[in-house]
Amino acid sequence: MRQAVVPHSSISSVTPARRTNLNSMATLQAWNGRKVVALRFEGVTAQNLAPLPTQLALRPGAPFQASALRTSLRQLFASGLYTQITALGIPEGDAVVILFRGEPQKFLHRVYVEGVKQDLFAAQLQRGTRLEIGTKFTFQSLQQATKSLRATLRQSGYDQPQIDVTTRPAAATNQIDVVYHILLGKQARVGAVVVSGNAGMTIGKFRKVAKLKDGSKVQADTLSRALERLQKKYQKKGRLEATVKGNEKQFDAAKNTVDFTFSVNPGPLVRIRATGAHVSSGDLKRLIPVYEEGAVDPDLLNEGDRNLRDHFQKQGYFDVHVTHTMRHPAAGEDFLLYKIERGLRQKVVAVQVQGNHYFDAETVQERLSVTKADLSDRYGSFSQSLLEHDVDAIAALYKSNGFSKVKIVPHVVDSNLKKTVGRKISSGLKVEYQIEEGPQQRVGTVQLLGVAQVASEKLLQQMNTRSGQPYSLSNLAGDRMTILAYYYRHGFLQIEMTVTQHVDAKDPNLMDIAFNIEEGKQFFVNRILTSGIHFTRPQVVNNLIELHPGDPLDRSKLMDTQRRLYNLALFSSVDTAVVNPHGEQQNKDVLLNISEAHRWNYDYGLGFEVQTGTPQKNCPSAASLIQLGVNPTTFQCSPNGTFGASERISFDISRINLRGRNQSITLQTAYGNLEKQAMMVFDNPKFYGHRTLDFAISSGYVQSQDITTYSSSSISASGTLTSRPNKPNTLMYSFEYRYITLSNLEISANLIPLLSQPARVSGPGITWVRDTRDDPLNATRGWYLSAQQFFAWSGFGAQANFNRLDVTQANYFRLPKKNWILARSTRIGMENIYGNPSYGTIPLPERLYAGGATSHRGFSINSAGPRDLQTGYPVGGSGAFINTTELRIPPIALPWMGKDFGFAIFNDMGNVYDTASDIWRGLFRFSQPNLRTCYNISGQNGVCDFNYNSQAIGVGPRYKTPIGPIRLDFSYNLNPTIYPVILSYSGRPPYVGNSGHFNFFFSVGQAF
């Protein structure tokens, strides 16, 4: 790159004026003092330079000065828009016109990789060039990029690719596209494997361990994964210090194979044992860092001492003492012995804070990791590392509030508690934190120095450091970041800041603060240059761009734009950059390079649930069987279903980017025991450009049997307008149509003609959802509300007139006990019939049901509430009240299980009721009313009342996973439902059934 100097050149003759090269000292001196009439620019236009031409040291109307010319040349070159620049003078009488002529700098606009079918691999190769868009383009950087690309291809097994690179001007001025045309050729295969050193295994075994099968494809991670596997193999053999190195790979062009060369040093055989206390092999490998680091040195051995000490202290052996010895019993062997003296097992009986005045004890204790024993933690939590952590936590609390000289001294003392446990004696431990607060320092004066281009008042309003407030280094650090963020948001990319502080001269407890700011130049957006759009309408992208020409160059808005474009799910990559990022050009172009995703997508999934109450198939009603001449006693079907698993397979195909918009159409299919469906969904988010509105239309076929009483099939269609006025609130306005048919009805014969008829249900609905939970998969705080109202009306073609209101509200509280969560959910559902009596029958699938893993766990799936009084099968109701309360105990350390298992204790109460008015009457009945009538099985139909509050208690483990907790629930129903069974499939005479005391559920995710 040339420096900003005036190169030598001869005087050129032009018409109509003579141009003189301003290089000789004689010319500069001769023209010194002449009036500058105008400044002109060639190569780089004044428009691209704006507003720099008005800021040059050499200005129109001012006298010419050589020093001003040199300064102007440096300013122009610092803009980053020139590779070289010259100054020419054009005399006009006694005045002069200055012409700045320069060769413009080219900038990289975009890198294309063509000829590679896999998008992911093409993107990897694009990154492998190490070319950064927006930066200066040179042919030297292009040559280096091609070398890097070849190295990336070689790592992936393509040693003989054909690479053709071309450049072409981009649509934007002074920008270049780089296009790589790649013919990959055949992917190399694994060839010979050569091992030097004492591998301790045959070459065949070595290949098998490393998974370097002869003829297998060479991938980018083939060597690294082979080294990882070999290292693990040697560690399993006790060779903890083994070193395996992969030397330079050799490519055989004739065979198209890659030969691998390894050097192996197995190192000594290291045996590690613990004596004095039992430590499982898994814990030993976890606690002794020699296993992970693959080295035996004093620091790692001492760290093993500390880890073992903490391990036993967490089990209540607070006085444990751990030492280690290293022996060499034979050549090539190391024996490491950890000696553990556990001492007495103790429990933390008290954790106290002394000497605190500024903060109350509760504020301090909630930051402590040392905890006393309780029901969930038999011995409490104590170790030296936890003690040190608590000292640091208390100190940080005080220092953040002006107590810079605070001292915390922990005291660990034995209490008077002595207890014999078997042959051992356990004792109690008291932990006291003695706090010496010291004087509190406060902020004296606060100054913002160097602020010229922004309003100081706006900065001060956002700062926590204010006069009279407690002096805090953390507040200072936070305010520094706040000020920097404010400047960055307003385009000041060169800001520098230092913070100085000194004790006030009049009061030693006051600290005067000064923020020294060098603002630098403010940069603005010149143009937004978007590329890569082929099928998508430009307006879809433009609506989400948060930066506009003339705005301050805010990189955070640029990242927000990138995030929002990714959220459309229309693009596989969105790259953003600022053109000429290091130049002093004040108005900068912004690049937005987009790659559109494939418009056809496929998704599939497989899962299952295990629970009691799984509906049984092929259970026609007894009446139907008799009519068909089939003996009902050959069928063994239960009204409560059976214990079993319900699998689910899903396959979806979608087409995105419909009509160049953020619209999609998806075919959703599912197959399983409980449900089979095929639905077509049209989704139109950001409806008519409104960011808070989404619109969707769906239609399809669903066949379900999630209730033991019947199988249902429905053809449905719906349209839904979703509004999100703010983050926690969602409103959904819908119109639904369903044509429902029932089969395999397990109900009284006299009801079959009425309820087996196909039914149409249609009408409008509205749903309000308010969600303030911190984590929908595993909430620890916040609340959730879902309120659904649906109207079915004959005026819309429905064959039933009813309205349904279903409200669910849940709260989550973090208890004072660390990480214990109290969760509560209440559901109230009501259905009412209105209008013409001929439309007064609510179809069975439209009734309210409850029971199952996410409802009342005292019942099997959808089996709560009223039953058919002849067969005993559930028939749903018109009222529902379910209240669930859970105490969620955080994960605790268990032998062999690690720290990912937690537990929940729950109580589920409520039921499904005949009518909505029965909710209030049955809510305070804790036993089934008129129970004796349920035992009367002498008639053709039984008599029974199901309107009561059923109670269930239970417990279940929770295993933490990235997709949510895996959940097992075991429940016991204190007052299960009693019902008569007049007709059964077992051949037995009429009997009195019940919904069962015990239920079991297995699923993923919390119950609510």
SSE inventory with pairings:
Layout: E1 20-21, H1 25-31, E2 36-42, H2 46-49, H3 66-78, E3 82-92, E4 95-104, E5 107-114, H4 119-128, H5 139-155, E6 162-169, E7 175-183, E8 189-197, H6 203-210, H7 222-236, E9 243-246, E10 250-252, E11 257-265, E12 269-275, H8 281-287, H9 290-293, H10 298-313, E13 321-327, E14 333-341, E15 346-354, H11 361-365, H12 384-399, E16 407-421, E17 424-436, E18 442-449, H13 456-461, H14 473-489, E19 496-503, E20 510-518, E21 524-531, H15 538-542, H16 555-567, E22 571-578, E23 587-596, E24 600-614, H17 622-627, E25 642-656, E26 664-672, E27 675-685, E28 693-707, E29 710-723, E30 729-743, H18 752-755, E31 759-771, E32 782-792, E33 802-814, E34 821-833, E35 879-894, E36 898-913, H19 917-922, H20 931-934, E37 950-959, E38 966-973, E39 978-981, E40 991-994, E41 998-1004
Parallel strand pairs: 2-4, 5-7, 8-11, 12-14, 15-17, 18-20, 21-23
Antiparallel strand pairs: 1-3, 3-4, 6-7, 9-11, 10-11, 13-14, 16-17, 19-20, 22-23, 24-25, 24-41, 25-26, 26-27, 27-28, 28-29, 29-30, 30-31, 31-32, 32-33, 33-34, 34-35, 35-36, 36-37, 37-38, 38-41, 39-40
